[in-house]
Specification:
With about 325 residues, the chain is mostly helical. It has a domain at about 30-235. The chain is built from 15 helices and no strands. It is globular, with a radius of gyration of 19 Å. The protein starts with a helix and ends with a helix. This is Branched-chain amino acid ABC transporter permease. GO terms for molecular function: branched-chain amino acid transmembrane transporter activity.
Length: about 325
């Protein structure tokens, strides 16, 4: 009975939130419309990381490389191919998925910390190639003035496009988490030895999980291009990966929508803190320190803890 009531309440809150998001561009100034569209992209990125981190137990320390790779794939397609721009949105995430597959084949055989450290090394190699390949990627200048379809050429158009794509991708990831594959994936997180003992191919499951997460990170990269109209090598730098990791921890990394909330908080904090200080990394370090001491379960984790055990089971 309580579960049914909780589901009804959750559905109602979700519908109200969606209605508010659909109406926001009619009331917000242009800057806040832009900021909201950016938050949708980063929320999708953080949630894609949490797919393998919180639900798979994989120490993916350089997730930003898939995000930047997807953004660059779309930018290069839009500026060099001469093909319809909408085709770039469909193709670019598969380049990120392919990169995730290649890096996974190298790293997935390692355990936890070694997996993460090798991924940082390989991701930094991809960043270095992008940073230095001036004739193809623009080097440290990046690529600017990327053409976009007319439908998303305005801030309002980009807002609705990012909202729609992010919502669809979040629903797909939610379905994956609650699918048989997702249950096995969480079982590997909790006890990989037992999963091996019952015949689960742990490395193959982790490889599939990383490839899926890389795909959705690539989608987030295309959404970033939709908002900014440019790409640059910093999208693949390891410090951005650290920032995404903090988003997951801040919102609640064992809760599906926790990273999305963490992304919204961090993006807003970074945007408005930049008005008053240049030392954003110092503020980010303080946020991480406070998280470790006072919010180990994240903001949503604290909320669900206060809501009681029945609510926690529905996370």
């Amino acid at each position: 009975m309580y579960k049914a009531l909780f589901d009804m309440k959750t559905t109602f809150i979700g519908l109200v939130l969606l209605a508010l998001l659909l109406m926001l561009p009619q009331f917000l100034p242009r800057f806040y419309v832009y900021l909201s569209a950016l938050i949708f992209a980063i929320a999708l990125l953080a949630t894609s990381l949490n797919l393998v981190l919180g639900f798979g137990g994989m120490y993916q320390f350089h997730h930003a490389v898939f995000y930047g790779f997807g953004a660059y794939a779309f930018a290069l397609f839009a500026t060099k191919s001469g093909l319809p721009l909408w085709l770039g949105y469909a193709i670019a995430p598969f380049f990120s998925a392919a990169l995730g597959l290649v890096l996974g084949l190298i790293t997935v055989r390692l355990n936890q910390l070694y997996f993460g450290m090798l991924q940082i090394s390989l991701g930094s190699l991809v960043w270095a190639i992008t940073y230095r390949w001036y004739s193809f990627t623009g080097g440290d200048d990046g690529i600017h003035g990327i053409p976009l379809p007319d439908l998303v050429g305005s801030s309002v158009g980009a807002y609705y496009f990012n909202l729609t794509v992010a919502a669809v991708c979040l629903l797909l990831m939610y379905a994956i988490v609650h699918s048989p594959f997702g249950r096995v994936f969480q079982g590997i997180r909790d006890n990989p030895e037992r999963c091996r003992a019952i015949g689960v191919n742990v490395q193959r499951q982790q490889l599939v999980g990383q490839t899926i997460a890389a795909f959705f990170a690539g989608v987030a990269g295309t959404l970033f291009v939709t908002v900014e109209g440019s790409v640059f090598p910093d999208l693949m730098f390891w410090t951005l990966s650290l920032e995404i990791l903090i988003m997951c921890l801040l919102g609640g990394w064992f809760i599906f929508l926790g990273p999305a909330l963490g992304a919204a908080i961090i993006i807003c904090l970074r945007t408005f803190a930049g008005i008053y200080t240049e030392y954003w990394t110092l503020i980010l370090g303080l946020v991480l320190m406070l998280l470790i001491f006072f919010l180990p379960e994240g903001v949503l984790g604290l909320f669900l803890h206060k809501a009681g055990p029945a609510a926690r089971r529905e996370r």
